[in-house]
Amino acid sequence: MNRSITLVFSGEAGQGLQTIEDFLVNAFSSTHYVFSCSDVMSRVRGGNNTVEIRVSDSPVSAYKEEIDVLFLLNDHAYSRMDKRITAQTVIVGESDYMNKDGITTEEINYKEYPFEEMAKEAGGKLFLNTVIFGFAAGMMDLKKDECNSLISQKFKEKGSKIIKQNQYAFDLGYKNGIDFVLEDEIAPVGDLKKTYKVLNGTQAVGIGCLGGGCNFISSYPMSPSTALLEFLANKGMEFDVFVEQAEDEIAALNMVIGAWYAGARGIATTSGGGFSLMEEAMSLAGITETPCVVHIAQRPGPATGLPTRTEQGDLFQAVNAGHGEYPKIVLAPGTLEDGVLMGQKAFYLADKYQVPVIVLTDQFYLESFGQMERFRLDDKSLSSFVNETNEDYKRYDLSQGPISPRGIPGYGKGLIKVDSDEHDEYGYITEDFDMRTTMHEKRLSKKERVLQDYFEPKYVGPEKYKNLIISWGSTFGVVKEYVDSIERGDTGFLSIKQLYPLSPDLKGYFDKAEKIIVIENNASGQLANLLKLELDVHVDKKILKYNGQPFSIEDVESRLKEVLK
Fold first, then answer.
1. Which of 276, 410, 468, 523 has the largest CB neighbor count within 10 A?
2. Are residues 250 and 222 in the same domain?
3. Which pLDDT score is estimated for 353?
4. C-alpha–C-alpha distance, residues 66 and 109, integer Å
């Protein structure tokens, strides 16, 4: 596995874990490879939340179970951490933080520091997170000037007094941290700021949406999808995005469909439960051949399930969404770059093929921070496929093949008629059986056209292999780290980015393998089942996890070691 140090910060909501994460990720990213993820309980107060930050000398984007240094922010922060503690783990906190859990400091490698006293010296308990930021920065030998600059940027709107207090709190922590001796140190790898940008999955998808010309979003808040609504709302003035918080998910997607009908490029963002309410509107988009984009941020179900955890349980829901048969596209980003490119191209594909496009993510992908190599977006995705209409305009003109020229009201002389009933070429309701068959086949035949813009999968490993590991979405980072680290040269890894429709070209990868293993964050192996259904590909082994946590590198290593032995 990658050579790294794993720092975990444990506390409850309101103690500033996100501030610590923001400071440290940005501070590390100047000279180190860094990845962070969080585990948040759904209760507002009293729960135990954690932030994990991995610092490495090579690119990293995976969750690690074992902890090198654990920071406790209160007297119940050790709760649920014991399974992640090893003999090498160093635990840092106040002298009395372990009493509540009935564990003596002699049983573990515990180092006591008066963090609360330092925070009070700086001005109060609110400065505890800055003290700990300073301690971790000193421990990892980060540059004080750059850290103080981050503090100034963070609190610039709160005035010079708050900035000075936080810088003082940072200095108090830093002085204690520089004396902390790490078993293993990660040397700086150079100036990475010019090459990489720090962001999370939500921001990646949001940037892609803006790059795809998104100018309308209508959604009803539902974690973890709400962050995309907030991101686009914050960019509304700068990028002319109209934002509507709908009264429910049913209204949200119908508004998006209406926006596309009028010539806008709209998106609805939701989670699995909210998408269930959108499925009737998905069918409406299907029969009216109106483009739309939906972002589904997966979390464990059924029902409310674990609303702040992660899972890949909604693939089949996305593929089979709505009643009746109609074409759609389902994309699943695995890297931050994927999020940008798929967020962008979703609008292009929806516009070009006049179909619903679903961008399928999950909590782990959206809320984890990493580094993305900077690149320039292609303007191709901004291409418009709207046509000026004539007086005899046929919305569903059959002479043009499966994709009829799409007009919008006010652009040309034609009347734009759409209807949720079956219709003829002009858009008028029909009950003619032959016309029904013709129109239905017209819509369904788009599936073959869509494959012309198919998202190629990402392959990692040797040209020739016996074993092929398959995954999708947020499991990319952890599987890639495993494949990159193993010494055996007979195992490859394929990350599938377009989950529907699946290209027959994928069979070329499967035909070369003696054993096919699928890794998924769900209980049934939904991608494995879809591969069998769509391509008649038999998967030999499913490695599944569905407790609400992402796969750790230890999970993948131990379970693949057993499968591949």
1. 468
2. yes
3. 98
4. 14
Verify that 338 and 273 share a domain, yes or no. Answer: yes
Q: Are residues 293 and 368 in the same domain?
A: yes
Q: Across the beta sheet with 467-472, what order do the strands follow?
A: 458-460, 491-496, 467-472, 515-520, 541-544
Whether 428 and 510 map to the same domain: the answer is no
Q: Indicate the number of domains in the chain.
A: 4
Q: What is the model's pLDDT at position 44?
A: 72
CB atoms within 10 A of CB 137: 25
DSSP annotation string for 235-293: THHHHT-EEEE-SSHHHHHHHHHHHHHHT--EEEEE-HHHHHHHHHHHHHHHHHT--EE
Q: Is 518 within the bounds of a domain?
A: yes
Spell out the alpha helix ranges (H) of 354-394: 363-367
79 and 224 housed in the same domain: no
Same domain, 372 and 509: no
Helices (H) and strands (E) in the chain, counts: 19, 20
- Answer for the pair 287, 420: CB distance below 8 angstroms, yes or no: yes
Map 153-214 to HEC letters. Answer: HHCHHHCHHHHHHHHHHHHHHHHHHCCCCCCCCCCCCCCCCCCEEEEEHHHHHHHHHHHCCC
Question: Looking at the predicted structure, is the pLDDT value of residue 104 above 80?
Answer: no
Is 70 exceeded by the pLDDT of residue 515? yes
Contact 352, 380 (CB under 8 A): no
Measure the CA–CA gap between 501 and 504, rounded to whole angstroms.
Answer: 9
Give the pLDDT of residue 13: 87
How far apart (Å, rounded) are the C-alpha atoms in residues 62 and 66?
12
Mean pLDDT of the chain: 95
Residue 224 has pLDDT above 70, yes or no: yes
- What does the alpha-carbon distance between residue 333 and residue 338 come to, in Å, rounded to a whole number? 5
Q: Is the pTM of this model over 0.90?
A: yes
Mean pLDDT calculated for residue range 317-321: 98
For the beta carbon of residue 340, count every other beta carbon within 10 angstroms.
26
Average pLDDT of span 156-182: 94
Domain that holds residue 209: 198-381
| Averaged pLDDT, 144-162 | 95
Determine the pLDDT at residue 99.
Answer: 64
Alpha helices, H only, 320-410: 336-353, 363-367
Which among 361, 309, 300 has a CA at the least distance from the CA of 330? 361
> Would you say residue 64 lies in a domain?
yes
Residue type, 142: L
Contact present, 129 and 15 (Cβ < 8 Å) = yes
